[in-house]
Each structure stands twice: as C-alpha cells, then as structure tokens.
Amino acid sequence: MSAAAPTAPATGTPGEPVVVGRDVWKIYGRGDTEVTALRAINITIPRGEMLAVMGPSGSGKTTFLNCFSGLDDVSRGQIQLEGVDIQSMDDRTKSEYRARRVGFVFQSYNLLPVLSAVENVEMPLLIAGVPGREARERARSMLRDLGLGDRFDHKPSELSGGQQQRVSLARALVGRPAIVWADEPTGNLDEEDSRQVTALLRQLNQTYRQTIVIVTHDPSVASACDRTVRMRDGQLVE
Amino acid sequence: MALGVVGLLVLLLLIVVVVAIVLALRHRLAFKIGIRNVARARGRTVLLVLGLLVATMIVSGSLVVGDTVNQVSVHYTVLAVGYNDEVIGNQSPSGAYVPFPYSVYTDVASGTAGNPDIAGMAPEIVGSISVFDRTSGVPQANLNLVGVNANQSTQLGDFVANNGSVVVGPAPGEVILDDLAASEMNASTGDELVLYGAGATPMASVVQAVVQDNIRGAFPTGGLGNFGSVFVDLATAQQLTNLSGAINFLSVTNVGDQANRLALAPAVSATLNATLMKIPAAAGLTVDQLLVNSLASASSSASSLTALFLVLGLFAIVAGALLIVGIFVLLAEERKGEMGVLRAIGLKGRELVYSFFFEGIVYAAGSALAGTALGVGVGYGLVYAFTALYHVSGLPGNAILDSFTVTNASLVEAYVIGFLLTLVTVVIASRRASRLNIVRAIRDIPEPPPTLRAYTFLAYLGGAVLVLGALLYATTYAGTIDDSYPILAGALIILGVALIASRFVRNRLAFSAAGVALLVWGGYLPLRLALLGTSHGISTFDVFVIGLVLVGGALLLFSFNASSIATALTRLAGGRSQQAPVALIALSYPARKTSRTVISLAIFALVIFVLVAIAAVGSTVTASLNNTLQEESGGYTFVAYSSTPIPNLPTLVASNATLAPYFDAVVPLGYAGMYVDVPGYAYNPYSDSVYVAPANASAEASFYDTNQYTFQSTLGGMSAAAVMAELRTTPNVAVVDNTYSSVPTNLAGTTTSHPKVNAGGSLTIINPANGNRTSVTVLGIMTQALVTGVFVSPPTAAALGSFPAEQFFLKVPSGASASRAAQLAKTAFFPYGFVILDIADLLASSIAPTEGIIGLLQVFVALGLVVGIAALGIVALRAVVERRREIGMLRANGFTQRMVLRAFFLEYTFVTLVGIGIGTALGLLVVWDRTQSPAAAASGTSVFAAPWLTLGLILLLAYGLAMLAVAQPSLRAARMPPAEAVRPTE
Asked: Rounded to an integer, what distance in angstroms lies between the CA atom of residue B581 and that of residue B890?
C-alpha cells in the first residue's frame, strides 16, 4: 500500500492555527435533565498536526468532534475553522464548507450500502461540484492509493471491515480537505487492520499535510499522533 | 347460497380463533411477545391498521354497492309487477297479448274457488293506445292501455295519488293516468282527453286522477319507448280495442306477504295450469310466474354488477395484500436484531412465526373491523355520487340513494374475508422473516447471495410451475371457455421456464426475457388469437388476468434492469453538478433495494393500470359513437312506427308543404311479428320481427336505394350494394340484424339466448296468422342491432302473408332541425299512433348508463390509490429510520438540508412515476389491443381514443397524493441534525 503524490497539497501555511476554540460549552437538555458535555474548552490545532483526543466513555470526545467539525452547534463560546467563525455560518454555508474543506471518518464507516466503493468515494467530490468524469477518476485513483484498486465496483457488504474503513478513509481524503475528523476509526477493526489504518492516516497526514483529529480509545493510535489531548467530564485535562 | 358462503366464512373464522387460542396456550412466550409488540408503539399500530384496512374496505364497498343495487332492483321490480304474481295470457311474436274469451276468467275463477292460496284474480285488457289531451293540446302515442274493473281489481292494490291519497277507480268513462303518461301530455286531473284505440272510433274521456308510477304494474308492451300507462274500466278497454266480450290478460294474486306469495307461486301456477287444461277456450294460454321470474332477473342483474365491482376491485385488493406483505417485511427488518437475539437465547424459528401470527391477529381483527365500516361509507359515497350524477331511466331521481342497503351477510363476508386475507398474508410474510441467520441478524449483516442449491430448488419449483401451466393450457387453449384460463396458463409456462433457466444463466437474462415474454403474451393480441383462436369467451376476469400478466412482465423487466436504468438516468443528471449527487443517491436506493421498490411499483402499476383501462374504455366507447351511429342508423335520422298502418307515408309527406322540406327520405317498411326457426337453436321457434321494403318505391322512398347499412359478414363476401340488389328481387333471401351474429356488436350484446346464424345459413320463417312458412338464405348479417329482426325480400314476404306499413325510416337533410322535423311529423300523423324516435338520441342514451358505471368504477378503483400512497408513506417513514447514519454521513460530507429533501422527493418521484408509467402504458395497451380485434372491428368500437384529460387528472392525483404522503418523512430526514444522525446507535 503506497500513497501517491497529491496533485495539490492542502492549502495554507504549515503551523498556522486551523482550528481555534475559545471557551466552548455544549449543554444538552434543560433543568433536571441538563447535561454539560463540553466545559470551557480552549484549544488551538495547527495546520498539518495529527491530534489524538482520548478519554473515557462519556467524557465528551464525540461531542468535541461534532461541535468543532461543525456538525453540531455549541451552547457558548467560539470556534474558528481556518479563521472563519463557524457559529456565523448558516446551514447551507456550513454544508458547503464541509463539502470543500472537511473530511470525516466514522467508527462504523457509514458507507452508503447501495453505492459501490468508487461511488461512495466520489460522493464528496460530486457534492463539491466536481464534474462526474473527473470525480470518478479521482475516486479510483484514491482507492488505488489505498490498495483497493480491485474493489472499485464492490458494494460495502462485499468488503471486509478493514476494506470498508479504507473506503471510508478514501472518501474522507479524496477532496483533499483541510481537516479530517476521525471518530474511533479503528474501533470496529481487528489489531492488524487497526495498525494498517493508523499507519495509513499518519502517512496521508505527512504526505498531504492535512490536519487530522482522531477521537480514540486506542493508545496505539494516539502514539502515532503528533499530540494527544485528554478529556474528562467535558473538560480538556491536558 | 349467500347463507352458505356466510356460514362457511364464519366457520373459517371460528377455526382460526380456536387455533389461535390453542396456540396461545401452548406458546405463551410467543403470545406475550406478539401482543406486547402491538402495545409497544401505539402510533405505529394505528399506522399499520390504516395500511392493512384498505383491502377489507374495497371488499366491503363492493358488497354494499351490490346490496344496494339488489335492493333497488327488488324494490322496483316488486313495484312494477305489483300484485301480478301469476299472469295467464298468450303473447304473440310481436309481443302483443292475444285475446281470449271473458268466460275463461269465470271458468278459472270457479275452477279455483276455495283455493286457500289464491287471494283473487283480475281480468284485464292490456294493449297500447294514443291519447290527445284537449286541455293541454298535447298528443301522445303508444301509451300502455290497462283495462280493469275497479271492483275486480282490489287485490291488485290501491291506486295512490301523488299526495298519498287512495284513488278508487277507474270510474266508468274516465281514465287514471300514471305520472309518466301525465307528464308526457302535461295532463292533470279533469283534463279532457280523446282516446284512440286500434281501429276503433275515438272516445272522449276525462282524467279522473294522476297516480304514482309503477303502482299496480306498468305493462310496457315492447317497442322502443315506454311513455306511461292509461287505466280505464274493462268495458271501455274492450270498446277501444274492438274486443267486446274478450280479455287478453288474467292477473292472479296469491295470499299473504311478498315472501308468502313467492313461496306459493309454484303451487298456484300448477293449479292454474291444471285448471286451464280443463277449459277448451283456454287453448294456447300459459301461466307466467311473473313475480318469481322478474325477481330472479333483477337479482341476476344486481349480481352481475356486484361481480364487476369485485373483479375490478381485485386489483386494489391485490395491491392491499402487497401492502400488507410490504408492511410486515419492513416490520421484520426493523426487528431483525431483536429476533436474532431471541433466536440466540433459544427461541425456535417457529415461535417467531407464532409471535407474528398473534400480532397479526390483533392487526387483522382491528383492520378488518375498521375496513368493513369504512367500506360501508365508501359504498354510500358511491351510491350518493351515482344518484347525484346520473339518472337511471324509469327510476325516480333518488331511488338508488333511498334504497341504500347494507345487509348483515355483506358485513360478515367483508369482515371475515378482510380478516383472513390480512392474516394469511401476515403469516406468509412472517415465515420468510423468521428464517434468519442468527449471527447476521444480530450484527445486521446483509444476507449473502443465493447459493447454487437455492437456484436448484428454484429450478425444481420452475418445473412444477411449468407442468401446471402446460396442463392448464392443454385443457383450456381450445373451445369456448373464458380465455383468462389459457392466458394464465401461458404466463405460468413463461415463469416456469424462467425459474429453470435461472439455474443455468444469469438471473438478469432469464427474468428479463420472461418479462418481455409476459408483455408480448398479455399485450399482443394477434399472438393469442393465433394460438388460442377466436372461439373463447370474454369476461371481466380477463382484464384482471391480463393486467396481472402485463404488470408482472413490466416489473420483472424493471427490477432486473433497474441498476442500468438508474445509472443511465444518473448520467443524464450528471451534467448539472448540483444534481449529480442528489440523482445518484435518489436513484440508487430504488434501483438496488428492488424488493421493496417492486412492491411499491406493483401497487401503483396495478391500480393505475385498471384506472387507465377503465378510462380508455369510456373514451373509446364515446369516440366510437359516431362510428356506431353511422352503422346503426343506416344513414337515417329517425326510426318511426305507427299503431295503424300508413300505406302512403312518402306521398303524404311529399304533398305536405310544411313537412316536405324537413325530409329527403321517407322509407316505409312492412312489418309483422312472426316465428323464426333456426337450425341448431335449442328453443325453436324464436319470436321476432320480420320486415319487407317495397321493391318499386320511388328513389327517395326506397329502402334499397337510400340505406347505408353495413354488414358484418355477407354470403361469399358480397358488397352491401350487391346484397341490397339481391334482397330487392330474389325470392327466399333475407338479411338479419346483428343479434344473430355469434360475434355481436356492443349494441347487440352477448345474448346467449338469441339464435345465431352465419351468412349463407338458412332460416325458416313461419307466419302464425296463416301458418305459411318459407325458408330463406341469409345473404348477410348487418352491423346494426337497433332495428332487430329479419329483413326479407318482397317475393318472400308475398309468400308469407300481409305486411302492413307500420315501420318507417326517415332522413332529415343537413341543415334542417331534426327536433322540429320530429315535432311536425308527430303532430301530422298522430291519428295513426305515430311514434318517431331520434336514432342519435337513442344511441346516446344507450351508452349513458355505461358512462355512469364507468365513472363509478373509476372512483371505486381509485380508492386503490390509497394503498399505493400508504405504501410509499410507510416505506419513506422506514427509510428515514434505516438511513439515519447514511443521511448523517451525507450531511457531514456537505449535503445541504435541501439536497436531502430533493434526494428523497426524487427517489419517490422516480418510484411513483415508473409505477404510473407502467400502469398507464399497459392500461392503454390493453384497450388499444382490444380495439384492434376482429370483434371490435365488427362492433364499431375499433376507434381507439386515449382519455388524455382523465389521464392527466389521474397522473396529477396519484403523483400529488404520493408526494404528500412522503413529504413528512422527507422533511424529517432533511431536518435531522447531522451530529445526531451520525451517532452509531438510534
């Protein structure tokens, strides 16, 4: 498995802040049912960094990912992605931003079962407005890069867990996003697949200079990252 | 019979209940799971019951319509027949009653005196009469004449005036008019009348009273119109008909209520026959059980209409059954995980089926109850709509609505049929659902593709289907049996071959070929005619079978090529970048989750198919009217007849300066009622009208020169002109109307009791007046069936006897007013009892009830759309739940809310439009196919017309309602917060 040279690197200057969070709070429910998932989070993630977010179950890791990636709104505080306050974006602008600048990898892959591997991978490109023929070619190229050159037309149900996660990775990276958010990307994989996916993420991070934020329980994944932050009760403790 | 069906259904219901109780006691855990599944989500339970009740509603609605039609028929038959339980008389071939001595009445009365079953009898004169109302100035010919003495007719019931008061009469020298006769003459009580009987001196009289229609019996004596009845005392009637000392009708009334009178009819009839045998003057008289026969005929008509509604309702019922399957397949998928866990902890597969069975019983019981009740509402709606939109000739305006009836038997039938249909479908769907792999179910892993073993099983199944189809085909392909059987057989053979082929070739190839074959078999009439011949009968059930075959073929073709279709459509949409991902998502789901797509498509296609087919039949009948008019009219404007012969009508018209400009052809025909003996006919001799046109009339009065009649078939393929030339001069030849054809036209109908003959065949005509008989060769079978009977040549007529000039064809020049011409002729020749009928009006009124029934059927079948819409709504609701994480992923990757919404709408637009498209195309194809058949060509219904306006309405209604059904789930999907959607658990 080898990553081919990118046709263009992720834009921006290495080291500049790409994710900035200031006093970020996320509170669910009201009154007796109120739950504070994030408490006064302050964090800066520089461009090109591969960051691990660790913590016990219920510590707020996934909420952190959802809020900082723009999938969810925060209750208080400010989040800037590439210098833009995402709280000021409406749903449409946020969607367009995600389409062009953000990639996601999920624990359960979240591939569309009715689409083939190549169709799944080309989907973010099509959403971003890339013409169909170019999108198909780039999707194939990315799948080949991830060692799935013989699985273009396979449906997710015809792939192993590791292969599905690699398709998921290809989908996250094919648009050359500025930031990739990965939620427990190895959670459903065995040890070997887990090691391969982690190595792949690291290799892609170094090759494409993309910022990667990984929420994980797995110390071996964290050890492959540039930095690790830990969460407990909705707070960054490190 | 009805009681038998109800009893059987109740027995079945009881068996199911007992089985359910036994199973519940033996499988308590499954029972508990099933019942708790019902209770755990009340909203969903309501939704399920709504989805499941549609089939029951259709059954219930059909039966209620049948009940009402039956009630109308029985009610008005009883009113029309009155207390004439048995009638003694002798009807001549022309339909008139032959007179017999009054002494027969006194002899019968004395011979049956003391019989406890007979309440009384009334001697009568029944005939026709012309009346001129001197007060209103309006004449009316051809009214029914009923002569009966007031003191001899008490058992016939009272005359009732419109204000409800009882009228005693008719008083000597006065007349009682019924509503219809009074309205024709604008007559009211006290009007001075002149009565014109056949050949008698006109008599002056006064209207004693106007009474309600159909009371004490209306006695239409045949002919083309019924203008109402005139009641006079017997002596007056005898004077008017020159039948002094005679009667021609003896009415007998049995004792008791209607049921008792019906029950006594056979015994009384036997007594009367025995009594008549002893009376020499009664020779030739017969006893007709009028009440019994009329009720049987009414009941048969009502049953036919119920059957028509039920057969066309079958499409909606099948759609309802498919919806039930769809609902339970979705339910099973939803519970796959928990079912897997239950199996893992030791529950047997059979127990899972039982749990579904118990759950299904609750749904079936509830939905059948709700469906039966809603069906009653649907039936009332249909009856109300029919009453509001259409008037049935001979019935009061609100007659049908007032007769709205729901019998207990229909309610029980609808409930049990709906209950069992739901339950059986649920059990079949549950058996499939329960055969799950425990690990795959728990981990939500898709089922693997079928193994070779599965295909081998399918091949054996295909073999069995093939053999079954071949056996059915071999026993039904020839003969006169309804052709739906061999059509079904052909379809089974095709499916059998496809199932076997799927073992050896790719599924797509095997089943696509089968789809094409089914479409050709069901939709290409020349192939069926070549293989099955033309001797098969046609029934409404044909439409159902052909519909299933065609829709099945189209769905096979679609489902095995859906991916290619979706890919092609996606490429088309790919040009617009924003549309490309939306189209890819929207089309991928229906194309690749084919089982549920096919269920939705089948529901839509079946319902739309029958809706479009009914609409196309209606538009084709209307479009064919001009064609039919030309063929039925022979180019004439009016057909007229007189109660007194008019030997020189053409001269009378030509010499009348007012009349002459209104007519450019006045054609007299000699007419006589005679017997026709047809070789091979079981009920020889047949009573029919015989006509002859003079050979030497002037050009404008010559039938042979002026008629434009066409022929369905002629001897040796002669032209129409050649047939007419032969008919003018050659002895022993004739032409016959289309009711003699074995392939009758739409006007002729399928009267199996009518004798049939081919061109070149022979008939024997017997004149009952003088016993003369002569054989004729049939030169041709006319296309028309408006003027029914045998047209003989003048030499043939001369050999048979006299043919008074009582029938006429008249033609109005273009630009002249037909209604004015009719009015002038009616006034000028009133003394002859001249009745003139507009042929175009007659034809239009002949198709009016058909149009009414077509309209009602469309509304009724459109109820099936509810099934399709419910199916889409349920599938969409389920899709939102199932695709939650996928929607989340799409939103994470940049799909806006609007794109999600568009994807959902596009997906269901695709499914709806494909279903509507399949149904529309096939519905039009079936009707077009029929218009190309030899029978359609012969009947003048070969003018195919697509009902564009109705099609547009159907499309808008179906699509609009479907989109409304999916709107809420689609909005829910679009508004789903992405962070919530991507979460691994619900």
From this structure: 10
Q: Is B658 helix (H, G, I), strand (E, B) or coil?
A: coil
Q: Could you tell me where the DSSP H helices lie in B231-289?
A: 234-240, 258-277
Say yes or no for a CB contact (<8 Å) between B893 and A126: no
- Distance of alpha carbon B587 from alpha carbon B252, whole angstroms: 75
Q: What are phi and psi of B546, to 5 degrees?
A: -60, -40
Torsion of CA B739, B743, B748, B749, to 10 degrees: 130
Report residue B216's pLDDT band, with 50, 70 and 90 as the boundaries: low
| Chain A residues with at least one Cβ partner in B under 8 Å | 62, 66-67, 69, 71-72, 91-92, 95-100, 102-104, 106-108, 110-115, 119, 123-124, 126-132, 157, 171, 183
Alpha carbon of A42 to those of A78, B863, B984: distances in Å?
9, 61, 27
Task: Report d(CA A227, CA A52) in Å as an integer.
Answer: 6
Query: In this model, does residue B391 exceed pLDDT 70?
Result: no
Nearest to B225 by CA among B180, B175, B177: B180
DSSP output for chain A = --PPPPSSPPSS-TTSEEEEEEEEEEEES-GGG-EEEEEEEEEEEETT-EEEEE--TTSSHHHHHHHHHTSS--SEEEEEETTEEGGG--HHHHHHHHHHHEEEEETT----TTS-HHHHHHHHHHHTT--HHHHHHHHHHHHHHTT-TT-TT--GGGS-HHHHHHHHHHHHHTT--SEEEEESTTTTS-HHHHHHHHHHHHHHHHHH--EEEEE-S-HHHHHTSSEEEEEETTEE--
Letter string b/e over residues B98-115, b meaning 16 or more CB atoms within 10 A of that residue's CB? ebbebebbebbbebbeeb
Which residues, at least 6 apart from B164, have a Cβ–Cβ distance to it below 8 Å?
A: none
- B893/A104 CB distance under 8 A: yes
Question: Two tokens at B69?
Answer: 């039609």
- What are the backbone angles phi and psi of residue B124, rounded to the nearest 5°? -140, 160
Q: Which residue has the tokens 């609701």?
A: B877
Residue B447 pLDDT:
65
Reference B142, options B829, B939, B687; nearest CA is B829
DSSP E strands in B790-932: the ranges are 790-792, 805-811, 835-838
Please report where in the chains the tokens 């229909």 appear, as a residue: B410
Residue appearing with tokens 């855990």: B29
Taking the C-alpha atoms of residue B30 and residue B51, their distance in angstroms, rounded to an integer, is 24
Q: What is the pLDDT of residue B218?
A: 43
Residues in Cβ contact with B214 at an 8 Å cutoff, skipping those fewer than 6 apart: B76, B79, B80, B82, B178
CA atoms lying within 13 Å on the CB side of residue A191: 0
Determine the residue type at B131: V
The DSSP code for B91 is B
Is there a contact between B697 and B703 (Cβ–Cβ < 8 Å)? yes
**What would the mean pLDDT of B734-742 be, rounded to a whole number?**
87
- Inter-CA distances, B55 with B51, B158, B383, B425, B655, Å: 9, 47, 20, 12, 68
**Predicted complex ipTM exceeds 0.85:** no
Total CB pairs under 8 A between chain A and B: 102
Q: Looking at the complex, report in whole angstroms how far the Cα of residue B874 sits from the nearest Cα belonging to chain A.
A: 20
Q: Which of B30, B24, B40, B25 is nearest to B342 (CA)?
A: B30
Q: What is the DSSP letter of B900?
A: H
Distances (CA, A) of A45 to A219, B137, B591: 20, 107, 43
Please list, in sequence order, all residues whose beta carbon lies within 8 angstroms of the beta carbon of residue B548, skipping any fewer than 6 positions away: B318, B491, B606
B207 membership: H or E segment, kind and range: strand B203-211
Which of the two residues, A29 and B655, has the higher pLDDT score? B655
Q: Say if residue B436's pLDDT is above 80.
A: no
Q: How high is the pLDDT of residue B215? A: 44
Distance from CA of B870 to the nearest CA of A (A): 24
What is the distance between the alpha carbons of residues B508 and B488, in angstroms, rounded to a whole number?
A: 23
